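=== Structural record ===
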Amino acid sequence: MIEGTGFQLKRSYLFGHFIMKLKLFGGDSVGVITAFYLSSSNAEHYEIDFEFLKNRTGQPYILQTNVFTGGKGDGTEDLSLV
């Protein structure tokens, strides 16, 4: 099952400020990914991802970040949230 929501603006912005509140799945969440991302819609793909990955009850979540610049996604980082 895949669920989600999203929106796209008709205008582009060069800079700004945003706040996102996410609620992570409680308990054993193996197989559940909660994500937030910003993405460009031009020919050269730019994107920043924040993905909260699986968790066994009592274990910390893993935050995986991905950065795509000029169409290349080689900026992955995994962080344990204790």
